[in-house]
């Protein structure tokens, strides 16, 4: 197993490099780089300026020509390119970036004038809070519900809970968040929960118990909104997995030997039924912690990593874009390895090392 873990760790290096290279090429090819964004701010122009402009009559001017026509001093442009590192060839910039990222040096944000690491650390508690409580709530509800649906397949309980699950799956998380705001955050009906922020402005002045209540008071609606989609998917996945295992021969044999239903369920079916759920856990965690919380963070004004990455893409803030991408990719690869190791822990019959050899 040690050699398998070592090979997987070594395989992460080219995988990470390939993902970073592909995204580096895509981002560099996208119109409206950081310098154009900065000039657009100075001149009050559209921040999404294209690299080539049609000036009518079939005449097309390049970015440098358009800058000159706007009265921008070429020496000022050269200073900006040197400041942002664009005076170097693309391959040198990429190699330098990878060298810095190996030591988790993500540089400074172009537009915030702060280290990217400090920005990510500042936003991390919000994403962890949303992801942690959403994941906990999803698994605590979905797995028991999915098991009961499998045991009572075809019953009235299974039918009406399936209807609720399908409705929940059909409703996008951001739309459900808006509905919660309208109903419970002073939109049109009740004003029971706050609309924005993770804590109140006077949070530091509150007592310990009041801080706990204030924190959960603020996070209730965002977590419920994030839970709705993941809850439906995991519930049906759990039901189908356990339903498939219940009808296998080893279960019938165990029951024929006089084993109780509880013994059959938790002694035989549970391990095998949980395998497919464990396999999907890494992607589910990455989705819930990062990408899944993006619109929720925007709607509830929560300053998390998802919102940070989105703002960086819109502003062409390259250090923040690649810093968050590097972190997301590294976490995803590590979680995938942890998933495989958990596979072996749940079912010792699985041996990835033997399979690879």
TrEMBL record:
InterPro entries: MetI-like, MetI-like_sf. CDD domains: TM_PBP2. This is Inner membrane ABC transporter permease protein YejB. It comes from the Bacteria. Residues 124-339 form the ABC transmembrane type-1 domain. SUPFAM superfamilies: MetI-like. Keywords: Cell inner membrane, Cell membrane, Membrane, Transmembrane, Transmembrane helix, Transport. It comes from Litchfieldella anticariensis (strain DSM 16096 / CECT 5854 / CIP 108499 / LMG 22089 / FP35) (Halomonas anticariensis). It is found in: Cell inner membrane; Cell membrane. Its main location: membrane. Probably part of a binding-protein-dependent transport system. Probably responsible for the translocation of the substrate across the membrane. GO terms for biological process: microcin transport; transmembrane transport. Belongs to the binding-protein-dependent transport system permease family. The chain crosses the membrane at residues 9-30, 124-147, 159-185, 215-238, 273-300, 320-346. One of its GO terms (cellular component) is plasma membrane. It is a multi-pass membrane protein.
């Amino acid at each position: 197993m040690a050699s398998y873990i070592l090979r997987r760790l070594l395989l992460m290096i080219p995988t990470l490099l390939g993902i970073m290279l592909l995204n580096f090429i895509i981002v560099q090819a996208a119109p409206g780089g950081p310098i154009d964004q900065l000039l657009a701010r100075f001149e009050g122009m559209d921040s999404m300026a294209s690299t080539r402009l049609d000036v009518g009559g079939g005449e097309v001017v390049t970015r440098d020509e358009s800058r000159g026509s706007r009265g921008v001093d070429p020496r000022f442009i050269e200073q900006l390119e040197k400041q942002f590192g664009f005076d170097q060839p693309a391959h040198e910039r990429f190699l330098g970036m990878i060298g810095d990222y190996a030591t988790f040096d993500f540089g400074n944000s172009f537009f915030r004038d702060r280290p990217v690491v400090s920005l990510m650390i500042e936003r991390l508690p919000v994403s962890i809070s949303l992801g942690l409580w959403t994941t906990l709530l999803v698994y605590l509800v979905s797995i028991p519900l999915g098991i009961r649906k499998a045991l009572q397949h075809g019953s009235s309980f299974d039918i009406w809970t399936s209807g609720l699950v399908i409705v929940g799956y059909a409703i996008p998380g951001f739309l459900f968040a808006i509905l919660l705001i309208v109903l419970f955050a002073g939109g049109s009906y009740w004003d029971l929960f706050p609309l924005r922020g993770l804590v109140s402005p006077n949070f530091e002045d509150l007592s310990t118990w009041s801080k706990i209540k204030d924190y959960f008071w603020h996070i209730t609606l965002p977590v419920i909104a994030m839970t709705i989609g993941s809850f439906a998917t995991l519930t049906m996945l759990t039901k189908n997995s356990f339903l498939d295992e219940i009808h296998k021969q080893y279960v019938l044999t165990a029951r024929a030997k006089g084993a109780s239903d509880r013994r059959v369920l938790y002694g035989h079916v549970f391990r095998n039924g949980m395998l497919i759920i464990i396999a999907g856990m890494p992607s589910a965690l990455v989705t819930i912690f990062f990408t899944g919380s993006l619109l929720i963070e925007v709607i509830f004004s929560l300053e998390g990593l998802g919102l940070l990455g989105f703002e960086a893409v819109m502003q062409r803030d390259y250090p923040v874009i690649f810093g968050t991408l590097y972190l997301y990719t590294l976490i995803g690869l590590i979680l995938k390895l942890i998933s495989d190791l958990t596979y072996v822990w749940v079912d010792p019959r699985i041996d990835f090392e033997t399979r690879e050899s």
